[in-house]
Amino acid sequence: MAKKHRFDTMAVKGGYGWDEQLRYRTMAPPLIQSAVFPYESAEWAADLYSYKIEGFAYGRINNPTNDIFEKRMALLEGTEAALGTSSGMAAIFMVAHHLVQSGEEITSSIRVYGGTQQLFAQSMPRMGIKTNWVVEPDKIEAWEKAITPKTKLLHVESPSNPNLFVADIPAIAELAKSKGLPLMIDNTICTPALMRPAEMGADIIIHSATKFISGNATSLSGVICAKKEFIDHVRHIGYRNIGPSISPFNAWLCLLGLDSLSLRMKKHSDNAMAVAKFLQKHPKIEAVSYPGLESHPQHKAAKKTMSGYSSMLSFNVAGGLEGARTAIDNLSIAVHTTHLGSSQTVAIQPAATTHYQLGPEERAKAGVPENMIRYSAGLEDPEDLIEDLENALSHVKG
User: Fold this and answer.
1) How far apart are CA 328 and CA 336, in angstroms?
2) CATH number at residue 366
3) pLDDT tens digits, residue range 199-239?
4) For strand 312-317 and strand 105-109, is the pairing parallel, antiparallel, or unpaired?
5) 156 and 95 together in one domain
6) What percent of the chain is helix, strand and coil (3-state, nearest 5)?
7) Residue 25 is part of a domain; what is its CATH number?
8) Residues 6+ away with beta carbon under 8 Å from 139
9) For residue 160, which of 83, 165, 345, 395 is within the disulfide window of CB 3.0 to 4.6 Å?
10) Do residues 157 and 127 make contact, with C-beta atoms less than 8 angstroms apart?
11) Would you say residue 1 lies in a domain?
12) pLDDT value of residue 4
């Protein structure tokens, strides 16, 4: 499938066009649940393992179903290649592991998912890698100050989970190029249906494909999108040695999810906007953060970088920790769980769950107050979601 095809066509056909359908005799991408692949000859196997030819060597390295998923994701993100991983965290780790050695540094926005923060703050130091946090990531001068001669990678999550910081990606990409540094963007929340960071100068795009790419909360998966040379190096070294490969079944589920990605992202965005507007006027809500609202501090950056604002918003409930707990406990449509990006609406209190391990001081730096609820609007009727929230908030004192 050539890159000349438009986004929605690539989401359905990318990496598995007419030729592939004839080869496998199936309209849907095949699920090839195999760890090993017979070699054509001794010479062919030797050429395969010395990277003189391309082919399927072993399930930990590549697989035909995974290959279709990787090709489709590369087409959608506008990169040369992609690599499926066992999770979004595995994708981030593989990039950092490949680019940053002991004694070197990562420069990252502090507005990141709690797991990413813990990876950079706890796990990476055990490998001799330091992270310099950009506490004001909306200011380009803060990025410049955080970059040192030891910096080997810039990392940005936009919009960030759970506080929805939106980065000026073109400006950060320009800075990265001026310093000769690769820029990695976590595009989990927008997906390429709403934002294509490679077109804005990003070098590496990662996803927790567990979220919107799959779209149904059935599979853990991740993906790295970048230049072919980079993807090949990661695949042949760290990926092969460490083994965080995506399972063929999960890659297949992600392929099925990509069929409807554009439709789902539009519905997610419409529902989230309706909910955000409702909450903005509610007397028991102290603050609402959603990039689609003009009140959002990076609304201009969101309009510049995103074609839609996705499903995730956060809001602060009156009454502190107990107020947020009361609201959570009285939701009946929204599922109380850590997930986001599926067809069902979900809600969670990050300070008490996903970001609890950071501690009060680090949570404050990351912009995660104890009364914040992270909410991911699903595909239900928006009026039902609003009624569910209205009922939940009626139980909050004050």
Assistant:
1) 7
2) 3.90.1150.10
3) 999 999 999 999 999 999 999 999 999 999 999 999 999 99
4) unpaired
5) yes
6) 45, 15, 40
7) 3.40.640.10
8) none
9) 165
10) no
11) no
12) 74
Q: Are residues 211 and 68 in the same domain?
A: yes
The pLDDT of residue 2 is 46
b/e sequence 65-91, b meaning 16+ C-beta within 10 Å: bbbbbbbbbbbbbbbbbbbbbbbbbbb
In this structure, the answer to whether residues 203 and 103 fall within a common structural domain is: yes
pTM above 0.90, yes or no: yes
Q: Is residue 269 located within the same domain as residue 204?
A: no
Asked whether 176 and 183 are in contact (CB, 8 A), the reply is yes
Q: 3-class secondary structure for 333-368?
A: CCEECCCCCCCCCEEECHHHCCCHHHHHHHHHHHCC
CA dihedral 195, 156, 310, 373 (to 10 degrees): 180
Is residue 104 included in any domain, yes or no?
yes
Residue with tokens 């997930």: 339
Alpha helices of 218-374 — where are they, by DSSP H?
Answer: 228-234, 240-242, 248-258, 261-280, 299-305, 320-329, 359-366
- Mark whether 318 and 369 lie in a shared domain: yes
**Number of domains forming the structure of the chain:** 2
Tokens of 60: 């930990």
Range of the domain at 138: 7-258
pLDDT score recorded for residue 189: 98
Angle between helices 382-394 and 320-329 (to 10 degrees): 130
Residue ranges of the chain whose pLDDT lies below 50: 1-2
Which burial class, exposed, middle or buried, applies to 288 when counting CB atoms under 10 A from its CB (0-12, 13-18, 19+)?
buried
Which tokens belong to 289? 């953060």
Q: How far apart are CA 268 and CA 273, in angstroms?
A: 9
Measured CA to CA, the distance from residue 335 to residue 379 in angstroms comes to 13
Judgement on whether residues 273 and 141 belong to the same structural domain of the protein? no
